[in-house]
Design a protein that fits this description.
Layout lengths: L8 E4 L4 E3 L2 E3 L5 E6 L4 E3 L2 E3 L3 E6 L7 E3 L2 E3 L6 E3 L5 E3 L2 E3 L10 E3 L5 E3 L2 E3 L6 E4 L5 E3 L2 E3 L6 E4 L6 E4 L2 E3 L8 E3 L7 E4 L6 E3 L4
Parallel strand pairs: 1-4, 2-5, 3-6, 4-7, 5-8, 6-9, 7-10, 8-11, 9-12, 10-13, 11-14, 12-15, 13-16, 14-17, 15-18, 16-19, 17-20, 18-21, 19-22, 20-23, 22-24
Length: 202
Amino acid sequence: NATDFGDGISLSSNNSLIINNTLGSNTNGQGVDIFGVNNNILNNTAYANRQGIKLSLISGINNTIKGNNVFSNNQKGIEVISDNSIIQDNIIRDNGHPGGYSGIAIQTNNNKVINNYISNNSLNGIEMITSANNEIINGVINNSGKNAIQISGTNSDNINITNVTIRNTNKSNYDLFFVDATQNNIFITDSYIENYSFNNTA
């Protein structure tokens, strides 16, 4: 059941469908905060919350965030702490102002980020923190305040970046930035990376 802990929807459940909601102005919580397995978050609008959409707990797996409009949230647009999840066909824009947060932040493994439009977020377009076996496929990352894609953590290996369009990254930063320079098996296919850095070494 949905309960109010400062979130628009806070749900601890499996096999649930959250669809066609408008969730705004929850400045002390998330628009949607989900704990569980096999949940679908589809075609919602999440704006002016602390965070837009959050998949919580490493025990959560196989969740889908698809077709949502996530904008003008105070911190992250979408945060993923859930393995084997799909983040697809979302518009994620204008999040994290003025504090400095990313459009999508992933801290788990085996996730797919597919065909999202990620624009004008105050920190990174996508950041992966100690996350392995993730894929970024298709989509646009535009006008990131810092790096378009940032990868950190000693176990952030086996990352595939395929057919991603990166535009207008802040010229003081990078299209692709490896914080630690310890990652292995990073595969880039049909994506134009104008500049990149391994631990601040271009």
